[in-house]
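Margin note: ligand = 5-hydroxymethylene-6-hydrofolic acid.
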Amino acid sequence: VRSQYEDFMRHVFTHGVHKGDRTGTGTGSVFGYQMRFDLREGFPLVTTKKVHFKSVALELLWFLRGDRNVRWLQERGVTIWDEWAGPDGDLGPVYGVQWRSWPAPTPENPHAAIDQISAVIATLKTNPDSRRMIVSAWNVAELDKMALMPCHAFFQFYVAPPQTPGARGTLSCQLYQRSADIFLGVPFNIASYALLTHMLAQQCDLDVGDFIWTGGDCHIYSNHTEQVQTQLARTPYPYPELHLRRRPPSIFDYEFDDFELRDYQHHPAIKAPVAV
Ligand code: THF
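Resulting structure:
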């Protein structure tokens, strides 16, 4: 189905309970929901409004850099993190820092850190049956130093072995997102992890499988109500296709121009304020 996102939005719009939140905006909220996107059937970029894929892709490349400062994004025209940054552009030890250099100090090396992305790639290549291919951004000891605690907090990879001789295994990814801004954030989050799954599959000679999105507090902000009504009146188009134009030497060498989105048919953009 290509309307999973819209079905989810409709479910929370219809059944969400009124709930206050940290930002003081107010939400309609449901606890716990799951969507499954078969990445072989297309790239799950929401079609019932225009989603700015360039911001999605550059944000992912910024995470993979291990970056914590919004400058790199701003220099490329991406402003989605500006609201949370300090005057120097710093966000503290957010996603990129935890993905690439989760602090693991020892007496001998107080600056030692764990590169979770490299570790997952190594395991995918040497022991794809592993049930431990996990990346966590939820570093409890560092939460109070982050400008915003991770919303998409924890993800796991899974390889289904080839089912016919000569076929390749398929790579699936499941994300646990503790807090989900359904109108603004979730279309970005789905596309971001779908893209990451394509990149890892390419680097590890696997085909793509499923992306499974699992949400905790799934909410529609009360100042997004009209936008949601507009969007739910629209009929989804078929998903676009993602093509990787080259195979970079490693997961850390992708550039925006390596991503080609084909046949992205979409309804017009819908503007909405972001809750800070
Ligand atoms: N806080 C809140 N309230 N919602 C979120 O979705 C969210 N994030 C990140 C951190 N805190 C959050 C930031 N990600 C947009 C998209 C993603 C964001 C923040 C903002 C946004 O405004 N999108 C517009 C414009 C797109 C653009 O400028 O390129 C849109 O129409 O999609 C979720 O992880």
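The mean pLDDT is 97.
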